Amino acid sequence: xxxxxxxxxxxxxxxxxxxxxxxxxxxxxxxxxxxxxxxxxxxxxxxxxxxxxxxxxxxxxxxxxxxxxxxxxxxxxxx
Length: 79
Description:
By secondary structure, the chain is an all-alpha fold. It is 65% helix and 0% strand. It is elongated, with a radius of gyration of 22 Å.
């Protein structure tokens, strides 16, 4: 993995809190962890959006070749 140097200014309290959370970590590791978390959260939001889009195009009670999800959910909740 290629590495790149980053020089930036951040909120003092935010950095102190991050350092308290991971006291053994270097600042570079804190920044990498924050960036990874940001990317995971963004990807999760994209996936949730894709599900919301799919369900808006095919509502739960609209049957397809497998049946309908609303009926399945009702059946599962009673078992």
